[in-house]
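Researcher: Please translate sequence to structure tokens.
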Amino acid sequence: MTNPTFRAAVVRTPDGPDSIEIIDVPVALPGPGQVRVQITAVTINPVDLAIANGIFHSMGAIHQPEHTGLGWDFAGTVIDTGEGTDLAAGTRVAGMVGGIDRDFGTYAEQLVVPATDLAVVPHELELAAASTVPLNGQTANQIVDLLGDAPEAANRLLVTGAAGAIGAYVAALARDRGWQVTGLARAEDEEFVSSLGAGFTTHAELGWDAVADTATLGEQAISLVRDSGTYVGVQPNARPASERGIRTEAVMAHPDGTRLAELLARTVSGELPARVHTLMPLDQVADAHKAVAKGGVRGRYLLTP
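Model: Translation complete:
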């Protein structure tokens, strides 16, 4: 009798989009506290391109002996549950998996994950749209946590890449903590950034109380922070050194089902954006990566396993 399998996209020897392979993986049953999810949609993120291009392998951050999984966030339907979970089969969920050094990912037909990492998708939200929220929304949430509550007399926050996937969430969420937000983006993105309730600029002056550097400008971004201000980036391995008394932080997103549920609810209400550009089948993952690498599109490329 043949053991059941499902398809997943991985890289064995990373060398760009064409090095991505579709392999058959044995079906795993969920253990205690876990659920098995049939994946409907997966968002392609820049970190996936970096893994397929071998950037993290060359840095010594990935040590998988056979292959490395791709994909961080997803949305789908629960098809099987382990003991001690409250999610029933048929429940629509979204979530993410964390870390870089792993042999599995969300570029797959199904996935076994801890139930606590998931959030139920509101019925008003399509699964494709929901799949765009977990990684970038939770990264933004955790950036705002690192920023903390804005000091009353020093609340000017600049968000670099404010029209991007993470930056747009930061621009919207930071206002909850008292920050007066200005988004740095291209001129053609002014209407979108302004719709988030943020100010807008294409050229930032010096002297910001804090900078959330979602565009990974690094040293250029920290130079915009006033003395004793705050810098928060999204690349822990490339966080600029502290200077002039500036507090420097960097986020590494981790799953949080409770916070994700809040983000999905705010997406339904229209407070947070969910931008889908197009959906492509898993078999076209290489073409999808090439399209994302070209840039110039604000909506997200999704894979449908």
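Researcher: Any highlights?
Model: The two ends are 25 Å apart (CA to CA).
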